[in-house]
Specification:
This protein is of the alpha/beta class and 478 residues long. The protein is built from 20 helices and 14 strands. The strands form four sheets. It has a five-stranded mixed β-sheet with strand order 2-1-3-13-6. A five-stranded mixed β-sheet has the order 8-9-10-7-11. α5 runs antiparallel to α17, α13 crosses α19 and α19 packs antiparallel against α20. It is globular and about 110 Å long.
Length: 478
């Protein structure tokens, strides 16, 4: 019997079937018949190998999320609430010449980049502006940012915050702006204020008068004097067409700037206008009405006279072009640099500056805004916005923008002279009732003294004494 059972499973007696597993290879509870189905086998194996903990995974996930939420609200959220929030700031900005619509696009762009800083721009009326501004600053109620004239630093040095190094260090400041700015806005070791514009004096000539006479614009003073005589058209007892608006104080707009320019070109110390050089410059100015008779006190103010075609040559800042076009849109005129003396190269500067109130609670934010306004991109946009409503915008104060406006006939002559411009406390039309107007009064007395027959030496000695008193009053040392 044993031998027969063995022979039944002998390979020689029965063929091997791979689909029938040996008894020891079948999982418990699975019959050989069920194991023969591959799909059933795979499913059952997977089910057998599955860990019991998998059944609890969804439940564990819910518990985990709940625990994380509890930890967040219990421990982390209170700490986040304790962090300082970005403080919202409102800066009050007193402007002077630009309407709100011109500067609003730049303000909007800045506020978009700095949503926590709001700018409240208030355009001020120019008359009594300096006194009103200084009064509110003294009470601690002044604006955070305000515009002031470049000659007002002696009057405002105690109210102004120095330019932050985060805005411009000294080297950057001096490289970006014209040399005259470095001289005008420096007090001690710091700079005070950022100029967003530049202006000065240029010579306006009547193109029709020059073309009719076959003349070209003068480049030196002697040439201008001869042209003024040649282009003068006399009338009975008066002047029909003046050669140049020079020589008096009452009806020559910007006469103090012109006289200061002549004296600076002649090497005069305006703080002490005595000596032969000062006398020569003063007498030369008066010659146009006393000797040459190319201008007199019977003529209307020089801006109006030029706009109406009654004067061939006239000195003015750039903004006078707006007045001229308003009075006479058809007048053909050209603007050229001021004449020079042989061997000299000096022009005149008179411009406005943006400063920061040193008592402002938001000095850092104020400087951030002025830094934005003084970038190349913003200054170009500023110019473009203003140009939408007038002949041209504010002449840029940045040296690296000059090339962009070389083709503009109203702007180019002023930029051409900017690199060698000088300034002093004889700037007209600042309405400051302060350092400029007090200085101008002493020089006015000197001019009128010569026109009245006085000696230049004597009137200038009196002038110099008055100038010294004003400089002492505002603690300006030379």
């Amino acid at each position: 019997m044993p031998s027969e059972e063995i022979n039944q499973f002998s390979p020689s007696e029965k063929e091997f079937n791979p689909e029938i597993a040996p008894p020891e290879m079948v999982p418990p509870g699975v019959s050989p018949k069920e194991e023969a189905d591959p799909e059933v086998k795979a499913a059952e194996l997977l089910k057998a190998r599955e860990s019991p903990i998998r059944k609890f995974l969804p439940f564990l996930a819910v518990i985990g999320i709940g625990l994380l939420g509890f930890l967040f609200f219990k421990f982390f959220l209170p700490k986040l609430r304790g962090l300082p929030k970005v403080k919202e700031v409102t800066l009050t900005y007193w402007g002077l010449w630009e309407e709100k619509g011109v500067i609003e696009p730049m303000i909007a762009e800045f506020q978009k980049e700095n949503p926590h800083i709001k700018i409240n721009y208030l355009q001020q009326y120019y008359k009594d502006y300096r006194e009103r501004l200084q009064s509110v600053l003294a009470r601690g109620e002044g604006p955070d940012i305000f515009r002031f004239h470049n000659t007002w630093l002696p009057m405002f040095k105690n109210e102004l915050a120095p330019v932050s190094p985060d805005v411009f260090d000294a080297a950057s400041f001096e490289a970006i702006f014209y040399p005259v700015v470095k001289k005008d806005l420096r007090y001690g070791t710091n700079y005070y204020g950022i100029p967003l514009m530049f202006d000065g004096l240029s010579l306006f000539i009547n193109s029709e008068i020059f073309e009719a006479a076959g003349k070209t614009p003068p480049t030196e003073w002697d040439e201008l004097r001869k042209l003024a005589i040649d282009l003068r058209t006399p009338a009975e007892g008066s002047i029909q067409t003046a050669g140049a608006a020079l020589g008096t104080t009452g009806n020559v707009d910007h006469w103090s700037d012109i006289l200061a320019l002549m004296m600076l070109q002649n090497g005069v110390d305006l703080a002490n206008p005595t000596g032969e050089l000062a006398e020569d410059a003063l007498v030369f100015y008066t010659l146009f009405s006393t000797t040459d008779l190319v201008w007199d006190e019977t003529l209307p103010p020089s801006t109006y006279a030029f706009a109406t075609g009654r004067v061939a040559m006239y000195f003015a800042p750039s903004w006078r072009a707006f007045n001229i076009k308003e009075i006479n849109p058809n007048l053909q005129f050209e603007i050229v640099p001021v004449p020079q003396l042989p061997g000299s190269k000096v022009s005149w500067a008179s411009y406005w500056v943006e400063g920061v109130n040193k008592k402002s609670d938001y000095e850092k934010e104020a400087w951030e805004f002025l830094k934005f306004l003084s970038t190349k991109e913003t200054m170009q946009k500023f110019y473009s916005e203003a140009s939408k409503t007038r002949l041209f915008g504010e002449i840029p104060s940045r040296v690296d923008l000059a090339d962009l406006y070389q083709s503009n006939p109203y702007v180019a002559p002023f930029l051409e002279q900017a690199s060698y411009a000088q300034s002093w406390y004889l700037a007209s039309r600042t309405w400051d009732n302060g350092i400029n107007e007090k200085m101008i009064k002493y020089y006015e007395d000197a001019v009128n003294g010569v026109l009245g027959g006085g000696k230049a030496k004597e009137v200038l000695q009196t002038c110099a004494q008055g100038i010294s008193q004003v400089l002492n009053q505002y603690q300006v040392s030379y």
